[in-house]
Amino acid sequence: MGDNKLRAGILIVSETASRDPSTDKCGPILQDVFRDDGGDQWEVTETKLVPDSISEIQSVVKQWSDGEDALSLVITSGGTGFAVKDRTPEAVTPLIEKHAPGLVHGMLAASLAVTPFALMSRPVAGVRNKTLILTLPGSPKGAKENLQAVLKLLPHACVQAAGADSRAIHVGGVKKLEEDAGVPSGAALYMLTVYPDPRTNHSHYHHHHGHGHGAHAGPKARTKPSDRPQSNDPSAGPTRRHRTSPYPMLSVEEALKLIEQHIPPPQTFLAPVNEFLTGHVLAADVHATESVPAFRASIVDGYAIKHPATGVFERGTYPVALVSHAQPGEVPPLQDGQIARITTGAPLPPGATAVVMVEDTVLVSKTVNESEEKDVEILTPAVQPSENVREVGSDVRAGDVILKKGEGITAHGGELGLLASVGTVEVLVYRKPVVGVLSTGDEIVPHDRPGALRLGEVRDTNRPTLLTAARNSGFEAVDLGIASDKPGTLETTLRTALQTVDLIITTGGVSMGELDLLKPTLERSLGGVIHFGRVSMKPGKPTTFATVPYKDPGTGHRSSRVVFSLPGNPASAVVTFHLFVLPSLHYASGVRPVGLPKVKVTLEEEVRLDAKRAEYHRVVVVARADGRLYASSTGGQRSSRIGSFRGANGLLVLPAGEGCVGRGEVGEVLLMGQVVSEV
């Protein structure tokens, strides 16, 4: 590095990275920006990671900016947001002697061209002694954008801050400064060099922010607006709302096909082999890295023997030359005419050919101190080579496929033990999506709120029920609380949730009322696509399935988040969770087959059919001594009646039609829980 280069330091402020530096993504990215975009004017000589501690941040900044060997530039990354622990501006501001609001404005303006959420950052900039200090966001993408926005201007600022003659460096005017910095005249042109217009250009650094396709052919709709249903416009008022649903009525089978088509593909990651692997599905075959057993081992307690060259072992008395226990360590070789006492699972001594069971022997003599056997008589000559011996790799051979892609790691199976037995440290598995559960409606109050209900209030039964259902199905579930029936509130809640969960379950707000805002918010505010908004089933007709575009604020990666808006009636919410949400979770986590298992049952009572819609009737399934399964109704099936789930472990699938399904007839049940045994 040349002596004329400006020296910079990068300070990463992160609780996580300060404990585990391997998790830091910002530091390397910022170093790349200095190298690739800095015009060979910078040398990063200092890097450090500290937690969100005002004193530790200030200590490093002062160390780098005070004294004769001060750096030209100090960059911090992290702690500039609104979280409780975000304290970087509070740490840096008291140290600044000259503030630089222009640089702050430039960074914010550049990021604002990418996302309105740039305004959620609180950067500060200024000079301490002769060192310029900038605070950047903690996300790798945001930090890179902010630094790129001002980097070409920083050499001029650092030279001035170091005490250069202002008149001398401004000879030639602004035009000369722009040429030296390599930037065009005018703020608008400069911003376009950092973030080109996505509608007209694919920039080297930021074409991924754009939504157009430059010279490529633009997207063209293949349907008329009248062919594409859309939800109510909340701003139009109740007199303009739809009187009938704009969404076509689909069968359950059609709805499930749409879910399969639009669920984002499963993601994979390397997971350590431990108890937390339970419930995951393998995304690749697993090969044994070593044989089991790894050594020749005895399967009984007895005596290891060595067959003579003739291959025929003779009965008689033999000296006990050594002892082999089931423990690590070297075992001496067995010589001709000797035997070795051996325990179950212990390695055979080198040279041993078989093991005689202790039951086929008689103790002849002991050692002097009587602590060990000296001579033992073998009572049978009928001992074949390899008898009572587990050969190397007889259970598993190194290189064998021990588990196949698509197999699950269960709590009741031996998959975890099998992986551990061959020394497998980590395996590639599908990531299980994180579920968020949100209740909506101003009338909804927490179920555990003390005191009597006021007129119109309803206790929230759906949220705790669905959280429990998701967790019992093996998925992490996040409680998103209760959202108000206000467009802005609901949108904010959903946007926040999209940052932390992969799939959102909401209940309520999907019918035809003026305050049923889920569908409008998904479509009009979040830019989502509603794949279906009505299903011909009972209960659960207004069930809605949508996907919403999502851009990771850290990496810029674009993907889709899934939203299921379930009816607010408790029975409807539970039924539709099992019918639609559970299969989607299975698709996303690699589980096959998806959804609830199906069984055939004999009905214990007559059940009336619905003429227009398929019904999912809550039943109790029991196993009787005759080996058959029987189903009985839980009673009234009204969609608001959560009591219909009391004791229910199955959903009886009833087709639309006239009349009844009679007692003694055979039907199909989706099993939600364990079968009750009356055997």
UniProtKB/TrEMBL annotation:
The keyword Cytoplasm does not apply. GO terms for molecular function: ATP binding; metal ion binding; molybdopterin adenylyltransferase activity; molybdopterin molybdotransferase activity. Pathway: Cofactor biosynthesis; molybdopterin biosynthesis. Residues 201-223 have a biased composition (Basic residues). Keywords: Magnesium, Metal-binding, Molybdenum, Molybdenum cofactor biosynthesis, Transferase. It catalyses: adenylyl-molybdopterin + molybdate = Mo-molybdopterin + AMP + H(+); molybdopterin + ATP + H(+) = adenylyl-molybdopterin + diphosphate. InterPro entries: MoaB/Mog-like_dom_sf, MoaB/Mog_dom, MoCF_biosynth_CS, MoeA-like, MoeA_C_domain_IV, MoeA_C_domain_IV_sf, MoeA_linker/N, MoeA_linker/N_sf. Residues 200-246 are annotated as: Disordered. The keyword Transferase applies. GO terms for biological process: Mo-molybdopterin cofactor biosynthetic process. SUPFAM superfamilies: MoeA C-terminal domain-like, MoeA N-terminal region -like, Molybdenum cofactor biosynthesis proteins. Its cofactor is Mg(2+). Residues 9-157, 436-587 form the MoaB/Mog domain. Pfam families: MoCF_biosynth, MoeA_C, MoeA_N. One of its GO terms (cellular component) is cytosol. In the C-terminal section; belongs to the MoeA family. In the N-terminal section; belongs to the MoaB/Mog family. PANTHER family: GEPHYRIN, MOLYBDOPTERIN BIOSYNTHESIS PROTEIN. Catalyzes two steps in the biosynthesis of the molybdenum cofactor. In the first step, molybdopterin is adenylated. Subsequently, molybdate is inserted into adenylated molybdopterin and AMP is released. This is Molybdopterin biosynthesis protein MoeA. It comes from Coniosporium apollinis (strain CBS 100218) (Rock-inhabiting black yeast).
